[in-house]
Design a protein that fits this description.
89 residues; alpha+beta; 4-stranded antiparallel β-sheet; 2 helices
């Protein structure tokens, strides 16, 4: 999945995803909100059937890019753990 950074200034970052599906952006926002330094993380889409989801991240002291990297690492770890629980055939 491709994403485009629209804004990365100070403690705010805006990312547009090259998809119409909200699943991954919502997952990232949910994981970001577990970080105490993240003040806001939310996804919007101009129209339910068209448009691209946009993720907005606002942080306190840390850079949004660092919070995003941490959230993505945590998502990778969760996915790896789930994959490891698949029954072997």
């Amino acid at each position: 999945m491709k994403m485009n950074v629209i804004k990365d200034e100070g403690n705010e970052m805006t990312i547009e995803f090259e998809t119409s599906d909200l699943t991954i952006p919502d997952l990232i926002a949910s994981e970001l909100l577990k970080n105490d330094d993240v003040e806001f993380a939310g996804v919007s889409k101009s129209h339910p059937e068209v448009g691209k989801p946009t993720l907005v991240i606002k942080t306190g002291k840390k850079k949004p890019r660092d919070a995003l990297a941490k959230a993505l690492t945590q998502i990778e770890e969760m996915a790896s753990e789930l994959k490891g629980q698949l029954p072997k055939k």
